What we know:
The chain is α/β, with parallel strands linked by helices. The chain folds into two domains: 162 residues, Rossmann fold; 121 residues, Zinc Finger, Delta Prime, domain 3. It contains 15 helices and five strands. Strands 2-3-4-1-5 form a five-stranded parallel sheet, sandwiched between helices. Helix 7 packs parallel to helix 9, helix 11 packs antiparallel against helix 15 and helix 14 runs antiparallel to helix 15. The termini are far apart.
Amino acid sequence: xxxxxxxxxxxxxxxxxxxxxxxxxxxxxxxxxxxxxxxxxxxxxxxxxxxxxxxxxxxxxxxxxxxxxxxxxxxxxxxxxxxxxxxxxxxxxxxxxxxxxxxxxxxxxxxxxxxxxxxxxxxxxxxxxxxxxxxxxxxxxxxxxxxxxxxxxxxxxxxxxxxxxxxxxxxxxxxxxxxxxxxxxxxxxxxxxxxxxxxxxxxxxxxxxxxxxxxxxxxxxxxxxxxxxxxxxxxxxxxxxxxxxxxxxxxxxxxxxxxxxxxxxxxxxxxxxxxxxxxxxxxxxxxxxxxxxxxxxxxxxxxxxxxxxxxxxxxxxxxxxxxxxxxxxxxxxxxxx
Length: 337
């Protein structure tokens, strides 16, 4: 049985309060950045509601038939809805199948739990169909929606959910936990790269993400210096297996934002990438503020395009060509796709 993560104690107490008062919300919306343990928290809560003999502390017993079925991923009253592939939407067929299942009574005497992750990947048709599930709830059914971008969900769905936001923890909680997980002296930098999400920082440590990020930054600087062609780097990044395109764009957004901060005489301690402080200061001395702001906006727009069917190599080519032109004094084309 998994333990409660140190930074989720207050959230867990809130969920325990629902159980203790026997006021189980029909739908809960768990929001927050990636790597904070939202799915883990949802599964702990699910385990208690499905358990046939929960402990006085409102934890699953781990020994009853329901707990054993859940551990084996064969519990008939536990349903998980997620895309067929990462980045794809949750189509209406899955919701139709869910509606058929919900028409039947739960097989055990406890609750039936439906987890939808990521809930913001419901498309328009599937979101409208799922809304009917919330409007016409079936017997002893509880929905848990998990989302990193809850604003993408229709307001009609959000308004019918009990919202629980999972914030990034304080370093005083996150760093000791990372050390316990075997993450060494780079824990602070990894946590910063992961935007304060400890589980993501641990994953980055396992994937040696610091070294990969350093290589990407050096290549990005080479494009700025005219020593590497933007099309060549775009091809390399598009083929990169260890880093998702969204992460590569996030890194570039952070580097540009730091250059803007340095141009505005911000304290170097306040930048997001302190290990790159010196080369970022060199770049800041070569660039003008207004074009940087325009390029920053362009990066944000292109990040939103990653969820579409746009060719990712073309996306990187466009951005890196603009980055090269920005560093040669030429006027980049910020019009986007």
